[in-house]
Amino acid sequence: MGTVFRLLNHRGLSTRRLAAAVGITQGRLYDYMNNKSRVEKLALFEQISDALRIPGGMLGLAKRPWEPRGAEPVAGPILEPDGNDLAAIDAFRNADKQTGGGRLYAAVIRHLKENIASRLVDAGSEPQVFAAAAALSEMAGWMAHDSGRDARAQSHFARALPLARTSGDAPLAANIAASSSHLALQVGEVGEAVHWAKVGLQFAGQGPQIPSLTARLYSMHARALAVADQGTVALRELERAHDALTSSAEATHPWISPFDEASLASESALTYRDMKRYDGALEYADRAVTLRESGRARSLAMSQINLVATHAYRGDLDAVLHFGVMLLTTNPSLGSVRVINQLTDLRRMLDSHSDHRPVRDFLERFDVAAKTRLLLLADIMAPGNEGTLS
């Protein structure tokens, strides 16, 4: 809200009039505008919505009494995005595949503030602006997650969803719900993960059909159910994911990252692993590594980690060492705290086999490589993540 107030002030609305309109003192308004305080009370959000005629859905509120009937956003066709917005998100997305999101997060936030935010309060803005804001906010959430800042990632996803709904882009809203499901699972909120996967499937059913998006949502639902010990239902949802990805010609969407066979293989491997069905997990983990092109460095690294971990679960130490050596050479400067954390988990798992001399020798090499990664990632490590692999 501080950003909104600054933009309105910049466009000629005095701080005195702004404060009077929303029923606060100028001193309090200055605190909001200078990021010294945050709007948190529901009643104040409602005051701001009513005073500035901001639709309730844009602030996470119910439809306000003054909004006309039919004001609730409904699913519409996929709108052609502005060329500059699309070029920006493509550039960020391509860089993210190579370097990880940690080093790009600040750039995406700056782009949102400098190139998107002012257009959101322009009465002449087209719905595409809200879609661009939603897509970039979701991207910022993933980059925050990749930097180990999960609370901030959750905040970005929460902001992205109403923007997507305002734009009327149902597939984009569904994709953001899938991201929320993934994050919930990562932080151990299994019930939330199930909830967001279901919400995403509801959104996906409202708009143009994107088979890869539907596959992603079914796979997220399957993973959450597997963690919740509902293996039979999880396998059914996983089968639906595979059917969705292969049953029809792919439709594209300008704001949504592709979910391909390698992505589904990775999610399938994790689902089977959570159900302790390690032979099936190994089949999919191996397939994910084979399919994942080297141009997506983070995805390849995470697929390799999963493959090594699956061999460890199966007790095949020779395979652990063989694929582990390959893992150590994977892009040590990759800016991803997620990769660091997964390597930490793998290190703990392998430590239980350290009485085996070849494993002990490998762990010595592992620790040297880990220290190198930490040194190269020191600039993006969030407080509390430093020294994770030491």
UniProtKB/TrEMBL annotation:
CDD domains: HTH_XRE. It comes from the Bacteria. This is Helix-turn-helix transcriptional regulator.
